[in-house]
Design goal:
mainly alpha; about 0% strand
Length: about 110
């Protein structure tokens, strides 16, 4: 498991951090049931939308992580606090890094 935990912390610490993110993401999944009263055919459409949303976001996440691992050198990736911005800097230049940074700030403000 050492290859997956590059922080140098314990495996339990890494697992607890990942679990907290997963549980936070689950809150969004369960909120789909709130609108069940206004959705046409909710028994079919809510599970379908949930599974499609999960599948699409998984594919986007895996592809973006794969691209980042291909662009950013491993040593730089280990020490980076903003891997998406680093990948944008290497691919597009400083402007790409700034754009990704601004988008991250706007997303966190709007969340």
């Amino acid at each position: 498991m050492a290859g997956w935990n590059v922080t140098g912390g314990s495996s339990m610490h890494a697992i607890s951090r990942a679990a907290s993110v997963a549980l936070w993401a689950f809150m969004g999944v369960e909120s789909a049931a709130v609108s069940a009263g206004v959705i046409e055919n909710p028994k079919r459409n809510i599970p379908l939308a949930t599974l499609l949303g999960l599948a699409i976001s998984t594919v986007v996440y895996l592809l973006s992580c794969t691209v980042i691992m291909g662009i950013v050198p491993n040593a730089e990736l280990r020490s980076s606090h903003a891997p998406f911005a680093e990948a944008a800097r290497l691919a597009v230049g400083t402007a790409g890094m700034v754009i990704i940074g601004v988008c991250a700030i706007l997303k966190s403000v709007g969340a």
